[in-house]
């Protein structure tokens, strides 16, 4: 796991307050609707954990960053929140029915993580990485991405994180569209919760602050509004244990 993957801890509470959760429909597409035992791997502050729990699943959360882990434990009392990583999962063989990963698989080292995920899954278990991706088909969102960079985690393109065989079947993509209400004056907080911002130097952070502020003040879809609907596409890659 890279250093950038561990950059979020300093902004754990900001991250938790501004990042979007995941739509229940996307979770259902990932692992079905029957309650199962699920590992939320790279769980962060537990945004996906909360959706899984609300759907009736038994959840174990594993997260390497202690500050993110502390927020997850606080948010979800009664849930096992364990220290660990995708490359070293602290669970017995065949102990979960499904492994889900929200906004984190791109930080994993696949050649080490995939055998570990395979190991902890029961026979025919499901592995489902997913991402909330800003929908740049909306003009003001495209303008925001022009400032801060795009989020391209597959979508209509093919799975881009390397082969999953012999551990898993080929991924099947499902897309769910949804919106999240964001206070306009907190768009910069959404940016400040990104690893790119957290690891940037002071000059680059200042540029991002300035240009996002200018966009919020001048774009016709944003200017003078207290809040805005941020459109997302949640992309789920579902595969079976081979």
Automatic annotation (TrEMBL):
InterPro entries xrefs: Diverse_substrate_MTase, Methyltransf_11, rRNA_Ade_Mease_Trfase_CS, SAM-dependent_MTases_sf
Domain (Methyltransferase type) ranges: 39-127
Name listed for the protein in its UniProt record: Methyltransferase type 11 domain-containing protein
Organism: Kitasatospora griseola (Streptomyces griseolosporeus)
This protein's UniProt keywords: Methyltransferase, Transferase
Phylogenetic classification of the source organism: Bacteria, Bacillati, Actinomycetota, Actinomycetes, Kitasatosporales
GO molecular function terms attached to this record: rRNA (adenine-N6,N6-)-dimethyltransferase activity
Family assignment from sequence similarity: Belongs to the methyltransferase superfamily.
């Amino acid at each position: 796991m890279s250093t950038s993957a561990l950059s979020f801890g300093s902004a754990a509470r900001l991250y938790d307050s501004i990042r979007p959760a995941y739509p229940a429909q996307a979770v259902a597409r990932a692992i079905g609707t029957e309650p199962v035992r699920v590992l939320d791997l790279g769980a962060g502050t537990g945004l996906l954990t909360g959706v899984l729990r609300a759907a009736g699943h038994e959840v174990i959360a594993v997260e390497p960053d202690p500050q993110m882990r502390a927020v997850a434990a606080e948010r979800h009392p009664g849930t096992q929140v364990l220290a660990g990583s995708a490359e070293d999962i602290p669970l017995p063989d065949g102990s979960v029915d499904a492994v889900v990963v929200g906004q984190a698989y791109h930080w994993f080292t696949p050649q080490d993580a995939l055998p570990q995920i395979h190991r902890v899954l029961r026979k025919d278990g499901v592995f489902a990485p997913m991402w909330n991706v800003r929908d740049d088909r909306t003009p003001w969102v495209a303008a925001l991405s022009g400032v801060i960079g795009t989020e391209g985690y597959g979508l209509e393109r093919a799975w881009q994180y390397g082969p999953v065989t012999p551990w898993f079947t080929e991924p099947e993509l499902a897309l769910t569209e949804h919106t999240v209400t964001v206070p306009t004056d907190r768009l910069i907080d959404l940016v400040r919760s990104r690893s790119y911002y957290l690891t940037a130097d002071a000059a680059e952070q200042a540029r991002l602050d300035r240009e996002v502020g200018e966009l919020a003040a001048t774009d016709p879809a944003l200017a003078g509004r207290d809040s805005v609907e941020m459109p997302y596409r949640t992309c789920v890659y579902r595969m079976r244990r081979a």
